[in-house]
Amino acid sequence: MKKVLVKVKGTQDVDGEKAVIELSTEGTIREFDGDYIITYNDDPTESGGQTKTQLTVQKNGTVILDRRGDLNSRLVITEGERNSCLYAIPQGSLTLGIYGKTVKNTMTANGGTVKMVYSIDMNLEPLSDNEVEIFVEER
C-alpha cells in the first residue's frame, strides 16, 4: 500500500446547468490481482459529512466507486453498459441507472488517471450527465 495524492474533478450537467466539484486529498493505492484500489476520505464540506471513498479500477476496464459513511453509494461504471446502482442518503435510498459512455485509465501501482463519462437515470428518465477525472500520484 502506497500513500498518494488524489485529485478529483467532477462535472455534473442537469438540464443544461453545470456544477463542478474539485477535491484534493491524501489517500492510498494498492494493487490486488491486477486491479487498483484507491481509498480516500471526501471533504466533509463537500459531502456534508464524513464519507470514505474506495475506487476500484478493474483490469477489465470497469470502475467501481464505493462510498461509505454519511453518504452511501456503489456506482459501477462500465463503458457501453448500463448498471443499476444503490444511492443512499439520510433522507432515503434510490436505485439509479448508470450508463458508462467512456471509461479510460492509465493506472499503475504508482498512480495514474481515471476518466469516466456517464449518465444517471431513474426509471429510465435522464437525471444528469457526468464527467469525473481522478488523478493519483505517489507521495
Biggest sheet overview: 10 strands, antiparallel, barrel
Q: Helix/strand-derived class?
A: mainly beta
Number of strands: 10
Helix content range of the residues, please?
under 10%
N-to-C CA distance: 12 Å
What proportion strand? over 45%
Query: Strands of the largest sheet, in order across it?
Result: 1-2-3-4-5-6-7-8-9-10
- What's the pLDDT, averaged over the residues? 92
- Tally of alpha and pi helices: 1
Q: What form results from the Cα inertia axes?
A: globular
Could you describe the 3D structure shown?
There is one protein chain. The protein is mainly β and 139 residues long. Helices cover 3% and strands 75% of the residues. It has one helix and ten strands, in the order βββαβββββββ. Strands 1-2-3-4-5-6-7-8-9-10 form a ten-stranded antiparallel barrel. Strand 6 and strand 7 form a beta hairpin. The longest helix has 4 residues, at 44-47. The chain is globular. The termini are close together. The mean pLDDT is 92.
Key terms:
1 helix; 75% strand; 139 residues; ten-stranded antiparallel barrel; single chain; mainly beta; 10 strands
Q: In summary, what is this structure?
A:
The longest helix has 4 residues, at 44-47. The protein has 139 residues and is mainly β. The radius of gyration is 14 Å and the shape is globular.
